[in-house]
């Protein structure tokens, strides 16, 4: 199988720009994932965040996770578990409002560096969205505008640890799913693997690389690009050794953003026949559906939203 796409962002400045843009285009069309190196986030910052995240887990979360495992008898399961994941997590919100100051067990230094990291990730997400616009032939800023709604994008981070698991064949670190939102930027452990994506019917490892950022596309970008780019099923396989760190940041539409295929990407015949595959909906409505159906196929979600298109909720919301 062809190798996992790795994009060197330094090559966007100079004679290798066209080749690099082609690599991004191919990754978006055929993988739904790619990995960034030389992305502009300082390696020292990433090292600090990794050290503090692992320290926070040891100090504040490890014992809680052990108690949860014991209370559910997970170490002794004999058949595959389908209703929970072998992960320990907490969530940070950045936009439209931050909740970092409200999470009581974070050290001040950890809070500070996670805020700084979020600012850099937000800029990187917006830079990537503009690169996608360029490849799609959309005007610069189109995707950011599509996400904007009345409050600007929603942006948050899921901080996860995947501890050693005695029964990785029976319990997934994280069950297979596509991401509901826009564009996802992941800082993952560079020593302990586990993240896999489904490509051509096979599970493929997303390689751990030092100081890289893994990018994947969510359901909203599949809709806006009219299926030219796809959100892809992925999962985390639990490991018997090593504690895997995962810091996934989700740059998503505003809750009231109206999401629909970009008119420039809809074929005229498709438009005239009114037979477009993808629906038009308010992002918050999609999320309400997603919460209940996260670990199921995305196609029925799109179909359900299509059926709701005539709903009075959409009313006459401006879409231009």
Cα end-to-end separation: 42 Å
Strand content: 15-25%
Instruction: Please mark out the parts with pLDDT under 50 across 5 or more consecutive residues, or reply none.
Output: 315-320
Rg on CA atoms, Å: 20 Å
**CATH architecture tag:** Sandwich
CATH topology: Jelly Rolls
Order of helices and strands: EHEHEHHEEEEEEHEEEHEHH
Numbering strands along the chain, what is their spatial order in the largest sheet? 1-2-9-6-11-4-3
Helix content: 25-40%
The CATH fourth-level homologous superfamily: B-lactam Antibiotic, Isopenicillin N Synthase, Chain
Domain count: the total is 1
Average pLDDT over all residues: 93
User: Which CATH C-level class is it?
Assistant: Mainly Beta
Total strand segments: 13
What global shape is seen?
Answer: globular
Pathway: Alkene biosynthesis; ethylene biosynthesis via S-adenosyl-L-methionine; ethylene from S-adenosyl-L-methionine: step 2/2
Enzyme class: oxidoreductase
EC number: 1.14.17.4
InterPro entries: DIOX_N, IPNS-like_FE2OG_OXY, IPNS-like_sf, Oxoglu/Fe-dep_dioxygenase_dom, Plant_2OG-oxidoreductases
Textual characterization of the structure:
With 320 residues, the protein is α+β, with helices and mostly antiparallel strands. It has a single domain, classed as B-lactam Antibiotic, Isopenicillin N Synthase, Chain (Jelly Rolls, Sandwich). The chain contains 8 helices and 13 strands. Strands 1-2-9-6-11-4-3 form a 7-stranded mixed β-sheet. It has a 4-stranded antiparallel β-sheet with strand order 5-10-7-8, with no helix packed on it. α1 packs across α3 and α2 packs across α3. It is globular, with a radius of gyration of 20 Å. Keywords: Ethylene biosynthesis, Iron, Metal-binding, Oxidoreductase, Vitamin C. Its EC number is 1.14.17.4. It comes from Psidium guajava.
């Amino acid at each position: 199988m062809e190798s996992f796409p790795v994009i060197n962002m330094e090559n966007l400045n100079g004679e290798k720009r066209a080749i690099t843009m082609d690599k991004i285009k191919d990754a978006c069309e055929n993988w739904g994932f790619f990995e960034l190196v030389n992305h502009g986030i300082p390696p020292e910052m990433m090292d600090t965040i990794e050290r503090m995240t692992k320290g926070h887990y040891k100090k504040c979360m490890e014992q809680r996770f052990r108690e949860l495992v014991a209370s559910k008898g997970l170490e002794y399961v004999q058949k595959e578990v389908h209703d929970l994941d072998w992960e320990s997590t907490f969530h940070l919100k950045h936009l439209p409002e931050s909740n970092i100051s409200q999470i009581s067990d974070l050290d001040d230094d950890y809070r500070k560096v996670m805020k700084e990291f979020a600012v850099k990730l937000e800029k990187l997400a917006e830079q990537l969205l503009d690169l996608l616009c360029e490849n799609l032939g959309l005007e610069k800023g189109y995707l950011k505008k599509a996400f904007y709604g009345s409050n600007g994008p929603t942006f948050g981070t899921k901080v996860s640890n995947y501890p050693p698991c005695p029964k990785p064949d029976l319990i997934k670190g994280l069950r297979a799913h596509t991401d509901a939102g826009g564009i996802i930027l992941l800082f993952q452990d560079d020593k302990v693997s586990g993240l896999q994506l489904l490509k051509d019917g096979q599970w493929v490892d997303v390689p751990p690389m030092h100081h890289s950022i893994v990018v994947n596309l969510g359901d909203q970008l599949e809709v806006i690009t009219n299926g030219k780019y796809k959100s892809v099923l992925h999962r985390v396989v639990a490991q018997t050794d090593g504690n895997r760190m995962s810091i996934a940041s989700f740059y998503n539409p505003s809750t009231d953003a109206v999401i629909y295929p970009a008119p420039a990407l809809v074929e005229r015949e498709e438009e005239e026949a009114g037979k477009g595959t993808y629906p038009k909906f308010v992002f918050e409505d999609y999320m309400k559906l997603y919460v209940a159906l996260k670990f199921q196929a995305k196609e029925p979600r799109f179909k359900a939203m299509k059926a709701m298109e005539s709903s009075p909720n959409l009313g006459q919301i401006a879409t231009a």
